[in-house]
Model the fold of this input.
Amino acid sequence: MKGTVIINNMFKIPTFLLLIAICGCLSNGRGPDYNIDELTRADSFSEMGYKYYRKSQYDEALRYFNKSLGINTMNDNQRGIAEDMNNIGSVYSVRGKFDEALIFYKDALSINEKIGDRKREADNLSNIGSAYNALGESENAIEYLRKAMLIDEEIGNKRGIAVRLNNIGVVLKQKGDLKEAVSFYTRALKINKKTNYTMGIASNLNNLGGASEAAGAMEKALKYYHEALRIDKEIEYYEGITIDLNNIATVYKNMGRMDEALDYYKRATKINERIGHIQHMISNLNNISDIYISKGEIKEGERYQKMGLQLSGD
Done:
């Protein structure tokens, strides 16, 4: 199995994290005395981690990535070590532990620079940029994302170019430059449609929905969000589904359509509970509480508020 998986990691406006799948290559970047059977085991563990990540089962994903890392380290498999470090970083990132994620991403980048894997180098740079953006360091984020895109353009990596365009759009949107953000999202969407990359298409649509919502075009935002939800359901990408449901609910809430908002927040809560996304679940519960209180259903609002406080440990 060879390739990358693009994963949403932002609750309101997803950026892309690149989870690197096993490379399927048993030569470059490996020590002279590696054990082929052991490295096959490491690849199997990495693939299991990859599958669990896709299902948003992050504890299991981390367990298998660490197993793969242990074997690759023992066999001095530099390429495998870099992939495992990147993937472990992605688990930390999706859980909001961005400082820890940066450590793993930068270690992976250092190895890929040494062994000359330009594609993986670009992926690492992109993930570092996304982590910096989540930490509020927008200039650092754009710098790393542009470095990644330069490499993609050099090697003709169209999917990578789409990822960087999307992520730069996210940074620009958060800085308040909606027009430029939409331009970057649209360029990314065009590439992903050409390459038929459905997960990327869903994320681009979601981000276009976010930009439309920020501009006050609520019906347009709903159209984008519902289309993203349709795609994420088709590919069974639960992280994306919860983001879509949350975003639809927020638009309905802002439009005063409270019953519809409640329905979508509750659907998001159930999935977040199932995949163990506690912070997202707390946000959903707080929004549900706010709606019930606004409707005059104080006891029900307080019940959901209490559930959120219990999850947050307060």
Q: What stands out?
A: The first strand starts at residue 4 and ends at 8.
